[in-house]
Amino acid sequence: MCCLQRSLLPLLILLFFQSPEMMRAESQSQQKVNAEVLLAFKSAAGDPPSLKSWMGREPCLQSWIGVQCSGKFQNSTVIAVKLTGYKLEGVISPAIQYLTSLITLWLDDNHLRGRIPSGLGNLKNLTSLRLSNNALTGRVPSSLALLPRLKELTLMNNHLRGSLPFDGTFSRVMDISVHGNTELCSSSGSYNLSVCGPSSAPALTFTSSPPALTFSSPDIHQSGSGKAKSKVGAIVGGALAEWVKGHESPMVAGAIPLREVPRARVFSLAELEHATDQFIQNKLIGQGSFGLVYKGILHDGRIIAIKTRTSSPSLDFVKEVQYLCHIYHRHLVSLLGYCQENDQQMLVYDYMPNGSVCNHLYDSDGNSLGKLDFRQRLSIALDAAKGLEHLHALAPPLVHKGFKTSNVLVDENYIAKVTDFGLSQLLAGIHGAGSSSPVDVFLDPDFNASRSLHEKSDVYSFGVFLLELISGCEALRLNSPASEQNLVNWAQSLRESNKLVALIDSKMNQNYTDEAIKDFMDVAFQCLEFKGERRPTMNEVRKELDRILEKERGQTADTVEGAAVVTLGSELFRV
After folding, report:
1. What is the pTM of this model?
2. CB count in 10 Å sphere of residue 524
3. Element (H, E) at 79
4. pLDDT, tens digit, for every residue of 429-450?
C-alpha cells in the first residue's frame, strides 16, 4: 500500500467506493422508505382525496402535498408532515415511526380515530406534534415523554383517557395543550386537568429503538436455506409497531418484562389473503427454510411479511408460536402472530425491506463489498451477542440452532437484531435437528459426536459470524481457491502461519486500531474452539465485545479529518 497521508486516506477510500451509481442506489433506497411509509399512512387514514398527489415512489422529488424534505435529492429525507385540516379519517398508521428524520408532525383538525401509536416515541428528532381536534381514544403513550427534542405537544379536544404520562414538572416540553379530553387526568392536577385517582394509573409502556425497517440492495440472504436469496430485497422480521417495548433490564440488557407482552395475534386466512391480493405472484418476496415469503398490507396500514408452508394443523405449532411471540428484546426480531387454516401454516412478521448483515458485507459471490467500517462491524457483533445472550438467559435457555450472518438484520442506524430463533423447533420433522443444508460452516463440529445442539453451539456459530465480519467474506465460497473456500479453515491456517493480516477486509476503511482488531479476532477464535466446554458463554462474549468497542470509541475518530489510529497491514500481528 502506498504511504498516503493519514488525513487523506479515509477520504480517498470514500470517494473511490462511493460511486455515482452507489449514491443513486442509496438515494432510491431512502425514497423507497419514505414512499412505503407515507403510502401506508395514507391508506390507514382512509385514502383521502386531499392526498391524491401522493403517487409514485419519490415523495421528495415529486413534492407530495404536506410533505417537506431536507437536503438535495440524493440525500433527501422527509423531515415534516403537515396535514392540518386535510379531512383525514381512519387511524394513524404505526408505520409513521419509520420516518426517523421527522421533525414536525401535524395531524390536527381532522377526523382521525383510534389510539395514538406508541411507536411515535421512536421519532427522536421530533420537536412538534399536533394531534388536536380529532377523535383519538385510549391513553397517551408514555413513550412521548421520552422524546428528547419535543417542544410542542397538542392533544386537546379528543377522547383520550387515563393519566397523562408527565406532570407539571415536565418543563422540557415548552408547550403542552391537553384540555378538551374529559376522561384525561394528571397526577398533580397540572395542565388544567383533574387529579387522577388510584384507578387512573396508566398502563406501563416503554420505547426503545424502532422496529427495524430499512432498505438496501435487491439481493437479500433469506434465513435458513443457505444460498436462498430474495430478488425483491425484503426480509421479514421486526417488532410490533404499536406493542410495548422495554428499557434495558437489569438482568439482561434490552429485555422486556413478560407481564407487559401481549399474546400472539391469530390472523385469519381471509385477512392475509386480502393483505396480499390473494397471495399474488408479485407479492412473493423470497423463500426460506419455512417456505415462501409474501409481502402484505393490513387494513390499518401496517406492512407485514408472511412465511407460509403447507402442513396439517398442529396444536404443537400453536403452542410454539405462542411461546416465541412472548420473547422480546431490543436485539431480537419479534414474531407478530400466525395463521393455521386449510392445511396452511403461516408466520406473520413486520415487513423489513433492508435485510441481513450479508447484504452489507459481501456480494452474491461471497466477496467483500466494503460497505461497513470496523466500528460498525464491531457494533453489529455486540448487538447480535446481546440478542443471543438473552435467548440463553431464558428459563429454560433457548438455543437458536441456526444462527448465521443471514439471520442478523440491521436497521437504518445499523442496529442489529437476531431473527429466526425458535424456527428449528417449528421445522422439526421437516429438516430435523442441525443444518438444513448439505454443508453448514456455522454448524458446531461437535454435533457429529454429540448429535445435540446447545448454548455453546450457538457460540461456535457466532465465531463464524465474527470471521465474516472481519473478513467481509462469506463463510463458504466455492468459487475461491481451494485453500480459501472454507473461511474457518482458512482463518485457522492463517493463524498458524502468523499471517492473520490477510484475513482483514482490505476494502474496509482503516480507521481502527491494531489492538481492537487483534482482540476482536481473539474473541472469534475462542468461540471456534472445537470442544464446547472450552468456548466462552455468550455473556462473556458480550462483555468482551462491549469492552473492545468502548475502548475503540475512545481511540478512533468519528470524522474523516479526525486523529484516527491507522496501522498498515504490514505492521499488524508482527511478532
Report:
1. 0.54
2. 25
3. strand 77-82
4. 434 344 444 458 899 998 877 7
